[in-house]
Amino acid sequence: MKSESARAWQWFIEQCAGVHWPEAQPPKVVVADLGEGLRTAHPNSKLSTATLQFCQWHAFQAIRKKINAGARSGRGYNKKRRIRIKDRIWAYLQAATKEELDHRREALLREMTLDHQAYLTKYYAPLEEYLISYHVRKLPNLGAYSTQRGESSNQAVKNFTRATMGMRKSLTAIKRYTQERCDTILSTETDSFTKGAMYVTQMQKDIKDGEPPFGRCATLGIGTQAFEDIKLLFTRYALVYTAKQYRKALELWFLPHTHKDRAYCECTSLVRFGLPCEHKLL
Ligand SMILES: [Zn+2]
Q1: 135 pLDDT exceeds 70?
Q2: Cα of 80 from ligand 1 centre, angstroms
Q3: Is residue 107 packed enough to be buried (19+ CB in 10 Å), middle (13-18) or exposed (0-12)?
């Protein structure tokens, strides 16, 4: 493709999701660079239900490019300041809490010249919700913060996006690869469901015997039915994770005044992996 205009993107998405692969489920999140073309095309495309997240690596490059251009024109950046700014850009992008974000944005702005301060505030502030770690870690994006692992190091992606391949061939190969991966996962999952069921039986025995931290559960006669309904529906991995949260929830339950914890929490396991945290289990 020669262009990344909105029209080109519109056509590309229609070709992928409409013509060549209409049965594909739309993704929940699409990670892309900050290009205007996709941002304009996205709301009216077959990807409109997906959240458009922006790549931190591309954002870093874009901000640094501005700074370097400023430095070359001899306006306000010496070498030491440029190195400091580099760290502060990453710190800003990777801020993990609201406080960190506010603090690090300020720290970055302080290092910038006035016109770059205006640029950051005007251009990046409205995008933060879809770019900064604090926000995007809540998205069901399997832990992706950049497009890098897809672009430069993923052998499968490289194999399917060679310029000589042509679009139809490329999409057919991606389809086949995805199907094969799903088949492999299915057999591993089936095995894991059975092991998960055995794990539940063991846990029910522990509860009955009053093993820590289930001591009080046994006395009160609660908990032995826990996990019965999700036997053979959860993989062993998911069960071990949930059981850990369940133990934490029990510990919280027996503490006085913990009910406030139910109201709001910032755990991301439910939205990212579909597994409840201890607060949701309370
Ligand atoms: Zn929580």
Answers
A1: yes
A2: 42
A3: middle
